[in-house]
């Protein structure tokens, strides 16, 4: 299947069996003519300003997407770095919470000591 976008924005699908529906010839609003065989389609689009002719190769072979080992390797490495960064951020959050608790404790101790010292 091959997808083709017409000037009017409409998308059509071309297969060896037909154009959107089975058949070898289609006209749309008298402005678009498509004639095809099993491997090619000739598309003529006409409006008030221009005439556009296109020849499209019809690809009915199934497309197999294979992993690109280089890209996959980079993705795995990036995921590992991200995981490490998230772990480090979590450790920093814990350290900050502990330091804040220690600072709060020191402030509380200083206030209590000042209160006792001033109260005598």
Task: List strands and helices in order, with pairings.
Blueprint: E1 2-5, E2 11-14, E3 18-19, E4 21-22, E5 25-28, E6 32-36, E7 40-46, E8 51-57, H1 69-119
Antiparallel strand pairs: 1-2, 3-4, 5-6, 6-7, 7-8
In words, what does this structure look like?
With 120 residues, this protein is of the alpha+beta class. It contains 1 helix and 8 strands. It has a 4-stranded antiparallel beta sheet with strand order 5-6-7-8, with no helix packed on it. β3 and β4 form a beta hairpin. The longest helix is centred in the last third of the chain and has 51 residues, at 69-119. It starts with a strand and ends with a helix. The model has no long low-confidence stretch (mean pLDDT 80).
Helix content: 40-55%
In terms of quaternary structure, the protein is: single chain
User: Strand order, biggest sheet?
Assistant: 5-6-7-8
Terminus-to-terminus distance: 93 Å
The main β sheet shows up as: 4 strands, antiparallel
> Judging from the principal axes of the Cα atoms, what is the shape?
elongated
Could you tell me the radius of gyration in angstroms?
35 Å
How much of the polypeptide forms β-strand, as a percent range?
25-35%
Structural class, please? alpha+beta
H and E order: EEEEEEEEH
Question: Number of DSSP helices?
Answer: 1
Mean pLDDT: 80
Say how many strands there are.
8
Low-confidence stretches: none
């Amino acid at each position: 299947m091959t997808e083709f976008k017409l000037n009017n924005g409409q998308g059509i699908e071309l297969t060896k069996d037909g154009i959107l529906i089975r058949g070898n010839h289609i006209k749309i609003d008298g402005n678009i003519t498509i004639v095809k065989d099993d491997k090619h389609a000739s598309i003529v689009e006409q409006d008030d300003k221009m005439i556009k002719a296109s020849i499209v190769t019809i690809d009915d072979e199934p497309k197999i997407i294979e992993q690109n080992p280089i890209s996959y390797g980079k993705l795995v490495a990036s995921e590992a770095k991200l995981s490490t960064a998230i772990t480090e951020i979590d450790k920093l959050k814990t350290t900050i919470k502990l330091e804040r608790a220690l600072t709060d404790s020191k402030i509380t101790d200083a206030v209590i000591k000042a209160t006792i010292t001033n109260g005598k």
